[in-house]
Amino acid sequence: MASTSLLPKTISPFLTNPPSSLPSAHFTKPSFFTPCTRKPTTLTYAKKKNPWLDLFDDGEDPDMEYGSLFADGKQEEDPRPPDNPDNPYGFLKFPMGYNVEIASLPLKIRGDVRRCCCVISGGVYENLLFFPAIQLIKDRYPGVQIDIVASARGKQTYELNKNVRWATVYDPDDDFPEPAEYTDMLGVLKNRYYDMVLSTKLAGLGHAAFLFMASARDTVSYIYPNVNAAGAGLLLSETFTPDSTNLSEGGYHMYHQMIDWLGRPFRSVPRQPVPPLRVSISRKLKEFVEAKYRAVGAEKGKYIVIHGIESDSKATMQSRGDTDSLLPLQVWAEIADAMRDFKPVFVIPHEKERENVEEIVGDDTSIVFITTPGQLAALINDSAGVIATNTAAIQFANAREKPSIALFSSEEKGKLFVPNAAEKKCTIVSSKTGKLKDIDFEDIKQAMQILDLSLVLA
């Protein structure tokens, strides 16, 4: 063992993994290597992993048979090892004397994932839409431990996800991070010995190098759809090229390429279905929010949440793919006046908005100051319904199966961010001019009548 530890680390991941976006058809074998007799061109091999670096890599042999050591099917969940109460730093996740850096050969052959890290770009909205992918990973790899690296705002979302072990604050969208933070995060990722690292940030050579230095077996990321992606694919196991440089413009299915790859069939494992968006709300969070809305005179199940007030606060929870998604208070005042059977509860992202709401809507208006996605989800969970623009409130309403009215700047945006709206009990009202501020109040009023009727029937 002592002699083998001195051997240089293998560089096979560097030599076998390429940008998947490059067509393998451009790198065919020379004609003098092929036999003279022509055969039907039926490809039984998998997609070439790296046409750049290995011209003759035809993928895995489909006729290869593995013994009982390399069993087909999904990985088995490991039994939880005993904790070590004598550890002064807390309970160890593995027993004493166990080398976490030594992985078994079947794990490598089957592609098992015991530890997975997801580097998520964006704010609350983008992190929330990644929840189905997290559930997919959990279903596809039983027993996997999932960690998250996200911005400070994005990290708050994961108090609603029971599948995440650790959420670490590090802004992947910062192009010029502090050297101390950069190297510290690299050390954190290396010391956790991940099998797979996923990233939703569009990678150039710099971000690809960051993921590569995390020393994970598989490094998977989106890359730029332009020349900025040059060199990134050489350091990544799998790459996805979006349609534009703003991944959030893809709407609800913005991560469809990565989700399709994660759920791909493998040997005797069928394709993993994509689960719907769901959130988990703790009892402590529900009790805290209940005290908040009761303090402003609202009762459980008898109020409508209004979200999407125009503000310069970072807590608006809007999508990066739809910047025109906040309405002026004058429009919200008209909507509140049209309500009859339910009490409107205005959600403000900053305390400075309270005075404006009281001045325009009325002094007796129910106002709740909420900045975290967990509190917003708990408020929506106890409500009768939601009226909101394209913010996280609409996705929370869909996740908790609450009736909602979604206000969009265009019909295309509505279909993009809320697909199958009728199944989700969501009514989409869109502007005819392409600007949200020009939305027709009569259309909103008609949608509110439908919402009131559905609530009465419920």
TrEMBL record:
Region (Disordered): 1-20, 66-87
Gene3D superfamilies: Glycogen Phosphorylase B (3.40.50.2000)
InterPro entries recorded: Glyco_trans_9 (IPR002201), PNSB1 (IPR044983)
Protein name: Photosynthetic NDH subunit of subcomplex B 1, chloroplastic
Leader peptide range in chain numbering: none
GO cellular component: chloroplast thylakoid membrane; NAD(P)H dehydrogenase complex (plastoquinone)
Bias (Basic and acidic residues) ranges: 73-83
Any matching Pfam family: Glyco_transf_9
One of the protein's GO biological processes: photosynthetic electron transport in photosystem I
GO molecular function: glycosyltransferase activity
